[in-house]
TrEMBL record:
Gene3D superfamilies: 1.25.40.390
Species classification: Bacteria, Pseudomonadati, Bacteroidota, Cytophagia, Cytophagales
Top-level taxonomic group: Bacteria
Descriptive protein name: RagB/SusD family nutrient uptake outer membrane protein
Source organism (scientific name): Chryseosolibacter histidini
Gene Ontology CC entries for this record: cell outer membrane
Domain spans labelled SusD-like N-terminal: 92-215
Length: 529
């Protein structure tokens, strides 16, 4: 059984890497079939190829294969209901170490590519720091991002900063590294990335300096270092080009908001987006993101939860504007019109939706990354993604993410008014005008944080954020215990609630223990190896 840490340059040179066509398209591939360690890393152009191969591995890790961004960050949360086709172990909090989606193999493939590049780029003949610094900055940033994902999912994980040479077992058989050491390395990589990167935010499909500051904010918030998070997020205050979207007469707020997912390169809120299109690296040639939460050609395995649907309905019934994220995230088109009204009326007449409409005619489908329909290009009609032909451009960081993290930090440092000002900005840009400051007592830290988390839940639906939000704020059991109890009642099984608090983390995939003796006996309890 191969060791999932063993992805040094000797083995990686045999895989397909990317030759870029266009400044921001790293999805067009050509095989480099005759590479050896003796011929590669000999020219400046090799750095470019290697870095884009690293992004290829990152997209495999997060939204290819097992759609890990959703599996780790969303699907266990209250964001989703089960359509009857999903994994009941995930839905019922009964996950175990036998499930392949808990493998860290693909993250370590990215990490080892970063390790190789960081080691090899400065040794290429005739290159100077001016040639390789920006590439190294990207690799340090991507390595920090991958270790941060790993830390949040499993806690302590093996840490390696050197490529495996294909021979030395001691370099591959590594024990779990304490979280404090992982944190120190992540922050070190982020700082190195900030030092080396040339680009601020102009390259939105590549790790850039703004992404590094966003990641730094996120890391400090994970460790409840609120003042440090405020310092890091200050980078974005009065930034020249990163700002909340602005609606115009020809582009309402919900349209401009949608551009973050359909055309992130043009969005003022985009910071770092992971581009993805369907190709053979997806399991069985299937787009895993679409298959899980919004497929037009089959039954998706999970559906937007009633909690989300009902909150949007409540906002529409409040007479305080219409929250455009409702139809920007959920396929409401099929139930939005009275019979024949769209054809007969000008402008069309929309049927008033209610909570009773949950689950009907498309409301189980997520359309967040869908383009407008060419057949019916009205404001509540989006194409639903197909599992065979679709594009997902997943935001890793965007402005609203950083600002709502900043709002949490402000609240935790005594500035609830400033925190809710940010919440109001998030709302108003998509058409919802309710003042959050009238909904909670400013002196109630928990209530203010709940309001922020609710806004994050609606804003980042289907982006892989919700579970980490609940973990970061120590709210998993408080939120999920009643959810799990209701699910257990619905399934007519013993009602035990969330269960062992250790299940907040994820199990280490059992094959890791078979291939790495140094891990044996260190599974996250209550899971077994």
């Amino acid at each position: 059984m191969k060791n999932h840490l063993r992805y040094g340059y000797a083995s990686l040179l045999a895989v397909m890497v990317i030759i870029v066509s266009g400044c921001e398209n790293f999805l067009n591939r050509e095989p480099l079939s005759d590479l050896t360690t003796g011929t590669f890393f000999k020219a400046k152009s090799d750095m470019r190829v290697w870095v884009h191969g690293t992004y290829d591995e990152l997209q495999n890790a997060l939204i290819g294969n097992n759609a890990a961004a959703l599996e780790w960050g969303d699907l266990r949360s209250d964001n989703y209901g089960n359509t009857g086709y999903g994994d009941t172990r995930v839905y019922m909090n009964a996950i175990d170490a036998a499930q392949g989606q808990w493998t860290w193999e693909y993250l370590y493939r990215v990490i080892d590519r970063c390790n190789v590049g960081i080691m090899k780029f400065p040794t290429i003949p005739s290159v100077t720091p001016a040639d390789y610094n920006d590439y190294l900055g990207q690799l340090h940033g991507l390595r920090a991002l991958c270790y941060f994902y790993a830390l949040r999912v499993w806690g302590a994980v093996p840490m390696t900063l050197e490529p495996w040479d294909g021979e030395t077992a001691e370099k591959a058989n590594l024990p779990r590294t304490p979280e404090a050491e992982l944190k120190a390395q992540i922050l070190s990589d982020i700082d190195k990335s900030i030092e080396l990167l040339n680009s601020d935010v102009s390259r939105k499909f590549y790790f850039n300096r703004a992404a590094a500051w966003a990641l730094k904010t996120d890391v400090h918030m994970w460790f409840k270092e609120y003042n440090e998070a405020l310092t890091a997020s200050q980078y974005f205050i009065n930034h020249a080009s990163i700002k909340f979207l602005v609606a115009t007469a020809t582009a309402p707020g919900y349209v401009v908001w949608k551009n973050q997912f359909t055309d992130p390169a043009s969005s003022s809120e985009s910071i770092f987006t992971m581009a993805w299109n369907q190709d053979p690296t997806g399991a069985d040639g299937v787009n895993q993101w679409a298959q899980r939460v919004g497929a037009s050609n089959t039954n998706n395995t999970y559906q937007v939860s009633r909690v989300i649907f009902n909150e949007f309905i409540a906002r529409h019934q409040s007479k305080k504007g219409r929250d455009g994220r409702f139809w920007g995230v959920i396929d409401t088109a099929k139930i939005a019109y009275a019979a024949g009204a769209r054809i007969l009326a000008n402008p069309p007449v929309y049927r008033v939706l209610s909570t009773n409409d949950y689950g009907r005619d498309g409301t189980t489908k997520c359309v967040k990354f869908s383009q407008p329909s060419t057949a019916q290009p009205d404001r509540e009609k989006w194409q639903v993604l197909s599992t065979t032909t679709s594009t997902v451009q997943l935001p890793i960081y965007r402005f609203a993410d950083v600002m709502l993290l900043r709002a949490e930090a402000l609240n935790r440092t005594g500035n609830a008014d400033g925190a809710l000002t940010i919440v109001n900005s998030i709302r108003s840009r998509v058409g919802y005008t309710a003042d959050s400051k009238t909904e909670v007592a400013l002196g109630d830290v928990v209530a203010v944080e709940d309001a922020i988390l609710k806004e994050r839940q609606l804003e980042f639906m289907c982006e892989g954020k919700r579970w980490f939000d609940l973990m970061r704020t120590d709210n998993v059991i408080r939120v999920m215990d009643p959810v799990m109890r209701q699910r257990q009642i619905d399934y007519k099984v013993e009602v035990t609630g969330f269960g062992d608090p250790g299940r907040v983390k994820f199990p280490i995939y059992y094959k890791e223990f078979e291939s790495n003796p140094a891990l044996r006996g260190t599974q996250n309890p209550p899971y077994t190896e």
